[in-house]
Design brief:
about 425 residues, 6 helices
Length: about 425
């Protein structure tokens, strides 16, 4: 008992007491989801023939319609295209907003966005598109029922230098599937990057993190049930991972599902502004399971990948107490917590094992951490499969297993674990 007290004496930590206070975070900043930089999405453009455009046929899955338009004067030629947006009704071309480009092969073409869906481009705002390497042009598409709600799209000129194969594939694709119209060529089109995430900074005690609203169906509304999401990230992160259950919560009618976890605390979502302008939440009950395994029950068997690349079965540690810590290098208190894991690992190595599940973007980052820090505990690759099996819904998080893989507790921070372990 004395050795635990001795170790605890040297552990410095701070805890923020969180009362039943409600928090309101304004989400007025444009955020990037994981697709923003990753994908090269091209907005295709087709030559305008006379005064008629053709709706999208989706690789001949539906018949294209001819629509007569009114075009602004003053250009030798025109091209047209479409932006995916479900926030306004258009019976002619559902789910899309039409755009017209004047002088598409000039250095700085003009774009007209048919925001009112009347196919008269003379009553629309004229914007100038960028040339290669120039900053992109930000377009805003507003929801028809709630104009305060919108998405924004960044258009930049396709830069295809050194990308001959990509250009050829794109040209061949549109030439093959859209034989009823003439594709203008990939080099004259624009890359499309969508801002469908709005975020703010949550400041709770000494802790700060980002919280975002994600418009999954691109309609300018941010509270669609079973579609849109609430996403959290660390303060220094620049990308919101909308696909991971570790960071995102899908909006639900079931109030018991309207929770998120951050830094070991549970929060109940109270209100999401439809236009994505703010979110209200409050501290929730720590007893909520969220897929966690009940105390005293066995976890399922699983195999994890160690930093050295070897596979290990969790059942090999069934004779030990196991303290698992799930985190990322950008998580709150990462350096302090991993230093404490060293203390825990050397405390009772004959009966207690420590595993750090590190969530990284690239597997080599796991090896780098292991080789540089030389830990006295196991370092393993955090994965979606392991998170799902163990009910891990946020980072950082912990799980304490007793012998025979039975759950003893979730959510004990490293600075408190030794005190709990000594009582056991």
């Amino acid at each position: 008992m004395n050795k635990y007290n001795f170790i605890l004496f040297f552990i410095i930590f701070s805890l923020t007491a969180i009362g039943q206070t409600e928090y309101k975070v304004e989400t007025n900043n444009l955020g990037k989801d994981e697709r923003f930089e990753k994908y090269q999405i091209t907005m295709p453009l087709f030559w305008l023939q006379g005064d008629t455009i053709k709706t999208l046929s989706f690789e001949n899955m539906r018949k294209a319609k001819d629509i007569r338009i009114i075009k602004p004067k003053g250009y030798t030629n025109y091209a047209y295209g479409f932006l995916f947006f479900t926030g306004k009704q258009d019976n002619q071309n559902p789910g899309f907003t039409s755009v017209l480009i004047g002088g598409p092969q000039t250095k700085h073409p003009h774009i007209f966005i048919d925001n009112n869906h009347n196919y008269d481009f003379t009553d629309d705002e004229r914007l100038t598109l960028p040339y290669y390497y120039e900053p992109g042009k930000l377009l805003e598409l507003k929801n028809g029922m709630n104009p305060q709600g919108s998405i924004q799209i960044l258009l930049t000129k396709n830069n295809l230098f050194g990308k001959y194969e990509f250009k050829k594939q794109m040209d061949d694709y549109f030439d093959f599937f859209y034989k009823d119209r003439k594709f203008i060529g990939t080099e004259h089109c624009y890359r499309e990057q969508r801002y469908v995430t709005r975020y703010g900074i949550a400041k709770i005690g000494n802790d700060s993190f980002k919280i975002a609203l994600f418009d999954a169906n691109s309609n300018g509304k941010y509270n669609d049930v079973d579609t849109d999401k609430v996403v959290v990230s660390n303060y220094n992160d620049t990308i919101f991972d909308t696909n991971s259950d570790l960071y995102s919560t899908k909006i639900s009618k079931d109030k018991n599902q309207m929770f998120f976890e951050k830094n070991g605390f549970v929060y109940e979502i109270l209100e999401i502004n439809p236009a994505g302008q703010f979110i209200r939440f409050k501290p929730g009950s720590s007893d909520l399971l969220f897929g966690k395994i009940m105390t005293g029950k066995k976890i399922k068997k699983f195999v994890f990948t160690r930093a050295d690349g070897k596979k290990q079965k969790i059942k090999r540690l069934r004779k030990y107490n196991v303290f698992m810590y799930f985190t990322s290098e950008s998580a709150q208190n990462f350096e302090k917590d991993t230093a404490l894991l060293r203390v825990i690992a050397q405390t009772d190595s004959n009966h207690l094992k420590v595993i750090l599940f590190l969530y990284v973007n690239k597997s080599y980052e796991l090896r780098m951490y292991d080789s540089q820090s030389k830990p006295n505990y196991l370092v393993a690759l955090g994965s979606k499969e392991i998170s799902k099996k163990l009910g891990i819904r946020g980072l950082p998080q912990s799980l304490w297993l007793g012998k025979r893989r039975k759950v003893k507790a979730y959510g004990i921070r490293p600075n408190k674990f030794l005190g709990e372990y000594s009582k056991d």
